[in-house]
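fwd from M.: "can u put these together and see what the complex looks like"

so here's what she sent:
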Amino acid sequence: MKLHEYQSKSIFALHGIPVPPGRVVTAPGEARRVAEDLGAPVAVKAQVLVGGRGKAGGIQLAGTPDEAEKVAAALLKAEVKGLPVHHVLVEAAADIRQEMYLGIAVDRNLRRVTVMASTEGGVEIEQVARDNPQAIKRAVIDPSLGLGSDQALTLARGIGLADDLYAAFSDIVRGLHEAFLACDGLLAEINPLVVTGAGDLVALDGKVVLDDNALFRHPALAQMRGAGEETPAERRAREAGLSYVYLGGDIGCMVNGAGLAMATIDTISFFGGAPANFLDVGGGARAERVEQALRLILGERGIRVVLINIFGGITRCDEVARGIVAALRTLEPSVPMVVRLVGTNEKQGRAILDASGQRLIVADTLVEAAQKAVSVMQGDGVANGDFG
Amino acid sequence: MAILVDRNTRLLVQGITGHEGEFHCRQMVAYGTQIVAGVTPGKGGQCVCAGQVPVFDTVEDAVTATGANASIVYVPAPSAPDAILEAADAGIPLIVCVTEGIPIHDMIRVCARLAREGVRLIGPNCPGVLSPGQANVGIIPGRVGMPGLVGVVSRSGTLTYEVIHALTRRGIGQSTCVGIGGDPVIGTTFVEVLEMFERDPLTEGVVLIGEIGGGDEERAAQFIAERMTKPVTAFVAGRAAPPDKRMGHAGAIIEGGSGGAAEKVAAFEAVGVQVAAHPGQIPDLIV
């Protein structure tokens, strides 16, 4: 789960990281009041979960409270990279002398938390990693020892920071590491971390990604999930316990298991089809879940055929077949359905489909299912006479 | 022969009285796996699985009484890290964790501990290990496999069954099938399993099923180039996956422009590994 800048900064502040004074608002009039309180100039920043917000016009400077109100009004009506703006953060404009990058993430390959620092702030760190990897200094943290103060100093020296900033920088590294562990983060980034004209270090932007698997122990953080991170369909899927990603094509997919779901969309693409979605209906899928999944798929625009691919292990094919039949009776879809059921209780599952009187195109293998789904749209699938 | 588990495996089931644990315990026993004990704190003294498997309160008690030498963990995510560590503390050398949804920071701590102590962890978020005809440790439907000479290693669950099934249908048997898990931080990686298959005298070739996210496939390709003498056939799931979207598995995500399928396929092809375009092609590519 991604947090907005203002949410990330509130976590940073709790762990002693200096952030510019400011407040998040939802109305232009409030933006004016914040600007009055802070004293102009201010930065008005659209809170959207997308990179490259500044370049897309999502961050504006305002010299007066009047201007802050005007800019906020415009941003709150605008879209930034296709995303609606529900909140803007109004904060004191910083006097920037130098921009740096400080981030902390899990290095999957090392199975360790890694702190990264670079003097090339304000640009995406992935870009720096590609163009100038030497500019990024890293400190790998031993989970049993934690972050050593020597590691923070080595980073400061490594990026060529002025000596008089070592102490402040170390405090920020320590705070960021503490925040990262405290909220079960996957990523915490300050980009840019700036040196101001007065020689202070300030976190000018913030980005935190939380581990969804750990939200059970962070109820307050779990509530920070706002509109805008997910499409309505993705939200319904999450609430139903389904793993769903919209892909935009016309072949709806329902599969059990994430790897098999990916392989199914790969196979459809290989045979020239355009998958509409990734959907993992989960292990042991019960009839009710199957129905929710089908409802979700059929609710997207432009679906012309649905492919159901189930490999029964814990999941029983008869249970899934009952779910499919129940869902079809309720939803009465107008598009053809290709069904492939294999594994635990597959014979019973097939018998249930056959007896249902529903028009289904049955397939034995994944390849056959994908080919049938693709060809049925080209108009020659019906000729196969494979209706069950 | 096989790797990791065989007919000498004396298996302990952690979380045996839970819904999942009990169900899969019956399946594993029916397959012929030697299950010697179960553990659920507070339920010691019971017997489950038609009275065949004694339950203990702690792993230590179970190991002392039964000589268990491997453990399978079905404990729910909030307690699974402690269950793994408890098994390690009791001297179990091989732990397989099926549990999905364990926080990544818990796994970082657990993996660091186990690595120091030389304990082998498979998973978490994995379907387990099947050595056809010998032992089934996990949730892989045993009847999809058949004994043979091809090793299978995969980050996935049902996709692994799909591939084993496709192999079996074509008469290609398996020495051992290992699901290493779909999380970003896992106990055992492709490289370590490839190394075991390379050493196993009765494994003649390997099928590797990777997916988007991380760099484990790229390191496997490097290992294959430098150290493997046996042929490897690969499939990488997620060629059609968009960037920055988690595809179900916590670890299946293309982030910051890396971890995409194209790079992984290229890494394999560069070292002479045949890569299937879809799972149905895998049996055709095995020589």
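replying to her w this: Chain A touches chain B through 56 residues (CB under 8 Å).
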